[in-house]
Amino acid sequence: MLLLVFDCGTTGTRSILFDINGKEVSRAYEEYQIPQQPVGISEQNPIIWWNAIKNTCNQAIKNKNINLDDIIGISAAFHRATTTLIDKNGDILLDALTWMDERESTSFEGFQEEGGLRRIIPKLIWIKRNRPEIFDNASKIIFPDTYTYMKLCGKELCATDPTNGIYGIMNKETLDWDEGLGEQFGLPVDLWPELRNPGEIIGELTSEAAKELGLKANIPIIQGGGDQQCASLGMGVMDKGQAKVTTGTGTFVDVCTGDEIIQPVGDFPIFPLPHVIKGKWFLEGVMPGTGSMLQTYARNFSQLQIKESENVYDVLTKEAEQAPPGSNGLLFVPLYIFRKGTIHGLGWHHNRTHFARAIMESAALSANMYLGLLEGMAKIKLTELKSDGGAMNSDFWAQIFADIIGKKILVPENRDGAALGAAILGFHGTKSYGSFDDAIEKMVRFEKEFNPIKANSKIYKKLVRVFMPLVLKTDEEKRVTKDL
Predict the structure, then answer these.
(1) Cα(first)–Cα(last) distance of the chain, in Å?
(2) Phi and psi for 270 in degrees, rounded to 5?
(3) pTM above 0.85?
């Protein structure tokens, strides 16, 4: 009995097969080939998502000679706040504007009322104002999950779920499209896809899609959810007072607030978001680009290490281990996505070891900053933090998180929490488990624990004190280099 999961991220897609106990049976990964784009523009042709799903699915099946009869369902986790439009025939009208695209109309009335939560709306209004010929021909607004379900089940299925709908005109109380918000922003309800609940069977795999994926037709398709909500489920974070941090493309901190919807205070980009479990809510803070920065550093400044090693990140980790905690005062402010990333304290005595460690430390400092804010808003005090993502493949990086945050860090057996969370939704949707609690008990396991090293934490306290004020100051100021 296997569940097939598509983990569709910002930079690539995984296909993973899980058994009923949450054990990974086979996997394949493909990174998207995206052409260089001008600064401030981040577009993706949706076909790259589908091609990556097809390629990785076929590969994952071949890797272990999977018996296709064992696959009882398909679910998925998706990157969020990315959107495009389709016409009445279900055809894509323009490349999707990702959550990183900066061409937004944010000055219109009503957007700032919820602190910028509704990230899809300014993108759609930008399209409406700058590409009216496209918008006027639109039949539906879609997200990455909508597009994927249409490919899996046929164009007549146009669906999403609340973890994506929250970025549009969804009402937080009813979890349905809000006609008032639709009228306010000129984005009527009939433009939006149908809202379905995560863990619900929404269709079956068509014969056409089955042929492309190398599968059998009529496999049940179970509604998945946003990647961070799925990652939370994949680590058993579902009750008030539990929290997780994921470091992949960015660093995402999520604190569960139970059934309470907490409206954040202040100017920080912190948002109340629905869980994939109906009735549960989060507060989420994110520092985009922290994980991507290490990838960028490797690609541009570690060509020799790439040629000489099988895994350049193992080499970078060994280099970083040679630098002391605090990187001898080298500090990164990781506002890379806003073109405001800055380096402080750079001196003649710094070398590659310091740079690698400072990049790693910037992700942990970001997590610590948001965790403190979220604890205050949710009125809770955490003693431990569950953590997944690529960063947790490095014990050294995990220890940095423990030292900076000053809390126990629990690392799961499966670092791809989003994929495991989608698998839990799938097994629950196919009635393989009677409750999420039962599924979590059988499928979620933690294999490593990292506790703060007092001597290191003492050093990091100096960086913690300056990090948040420095991030705020840098974010508020105009770029010194302006449009260069």
Answers:
(1) 55
(2) -120, 135
(3) yes
